[in-house]
Amino acid sequence: MPATLSYPGVYIEEIPSGVRTITGVATSITAFIGRAPRGPVDAATRIQSYSDYERGFGGLSALSPMSYAIQQYFQHGGSDAYVIRVHNAAATAELSLPTSAAALVLTAASPGKWGNALRASVNFEATKDPTTLYTLAVQELVSPGSSTVIRSETFLNLSSDPASARYVTTVLAQESALVRVKGTAPTARPTATILNSDDPTDATKYVPRRPAAATVRTSPTIK
């Protein structure tokens, strides 16, 4: 509002303007684009430590100069970065779990040969309702055929009913860092396997009742 002029002097009146103050932005955030053993592709993923990169993109790799650049970035004081993973037509591994109808096909969460070392199994007993629900255990091994597990996930009380809050497609999309359901999940449950443990959350103890059929791995050609 205009100042009230009551005596001689210098008066300053601020006039409203549509110009907004330019706020400062961070200038130390770095973007990295390149190959990585695993992780989201063609999208920017924010990381704030090298541990974040290892968990999401697989750590150092001789085939990924970017991985060494990111390691050195954080070693020399970097604190915030975005990673964009690209690949040369890498395939996405699949796991096929048989049902009484079509198979339940799981795909690795991202392309790359890391997915060839995934293993999955199911059981009915460790559920709230053994007649309709099932438990899915997914493991990532050091290498295909290895017995050494480096990461495991267990999903209790899964359902093949799309109307269920525990619908397998939804649960894996929201909670799993390893696998997704490919296409539409069949309405029939996967083949049962035996739980060789008193602890239903111990994924390392899931063993197939019929090893030749209960767990099938594909070996896509990774470029």
Question: Which helices and strands, and how do they pair?
Answer:
Elements: E1 30-34, E2 44-47, H1 50-57, H2 65-75, E3 81-85, E4 94-97, E5 104-108, E6 118-123, E7 134-141, E8 149-158, H3 168-175, E9 179-181, E10 194-195, E11 206-207, H4 211-214
Key features of this structure:
223 residues, alpha+beta, 2 domains, three-stranded mixed β-sheet, three-stranded antiparallel β-sheet, 4 helices, elongated, disordered C terminus
Give your account of this protein's structure.
By secondary structure, this protein is an alpha+beta fold. The protein folds into 2 domains: 30-85, no CATH class; 94-214, no CATH class. It is 14% helix and 24% strand. It is built from 4 helices and 11 strands. The chain has helices at residues 50-57, 65-75, 168-175, 211-214, and strands spanning 30-34, 44-47, 81-85, 94-97, 104-108, 118-123, 134-141, 149-158, 179-181, 194-195, 206-207. The strands form 4 sheets. The chain has a 3-stranded mixed beta sheet, with helices on one face. The chain is elongated. The relative contact order is 0.16.
